[in-house]
Amino acid sequence: MSIMDPSTSKISLAYLGPEGTYGHQAAQVFLPALSEDVDVELIPCPTISDVYHHPSDYLVLPVQNTLAGSVTETADCLLSPLASGRENGKVEVGGIKGGNPGPSRPRIIGSTDLEIAHCLVVRRGVNMDDIKWVRSHEQALTQSTIFLHTHLPFATLHPWRSTASAALSLLQLSPEDPPGDGAALCSKAVLTLYPQLELLYEGTQAGNDNFTRFLLLSRHPDRPSICPIPTSNFFACRDSMTLSTLAQNSKLKAVHARPAPVEESSERYPTWYLVEVDSSTIYSSLDRKREDTVKLGTC
């Protein structure tokens, strides 16, 4: 079922690019719910923050992984509305500026779980013994820690903006790159896009039960959840008191804690919370602290 206005002829969907990332694959999973009788323009963005701030109709963001836990940049983006209106949006959380990003603050309207299988890829002709460094998104590096320590114990690790951009960078080396031959961790789909790359090892993640949850966000305030029966509500909470209220009155599904701006609290370690609760939560319990809570959406 499409959630678009029938009069709409084209919509846009931003994701962490370039083509071939897991975010690109997640975007394609969401397409059937968005593209009935309309054209969808997929827009790759270089970072998660760029996705969140892009004025596209819809956004795809990774939020958590079974092996590496929370995707911190996404959590920071989703918590940034707590800083809205403070010093004209100059307050930052985790490096993310507050205020309304784009035409309207995006709302969570859907989610999907994507199975993750990382591959070690190199430029053709490079062997395992030649590899001096490995780059990928920090989540992929974390999920592949055991493999890297076992097979490439002396290789230096370099976090990159995304898995596919790390692979593409192997074909665009510059004098600023580390010396020696390098490798990247990415999806096998990248190999079909760049035939100059070669697969050395498939399945570098620790175990086969590796999934990343991706959220679909909409900038249109009247768009309903794409989930036939929504089961989760998401909140941004400014303090532990509000988190405690949620815990007492609902079933908590997930809590992602992130450092808050120091000026937001007298505490030494101020913390904001991205909270997922069962959709049966009774919101009246939050009335007294409404200013400390932002509902982020339902899926």
UniProtKB/TrEMBL annotation:
One of its GO terms (cellular component) is cytoplasm. It holds the Pfam family PDT. The keyword GTP-binding does not apply. GO terms for molecular function: prephenate dehydratase activity. Residues 12-219 form the Prephenate dehydratase domain. GO terms for biological process: L-phenylalanine biosynthetic process. Pathway: Amino-acid biosynthesis. The keyword Cell membrane does not apply. Keywords: Amino-acid biosynthesis, Aromatic amino acid biosynthesis, Lyase, Phenylalanine biosynthesis. This is Prephenate dehydratase domain-containing protein. The lineage of its organism: Eukaryota, Fungi, Dikarya, Basidiomycota, Agaricomycotina.
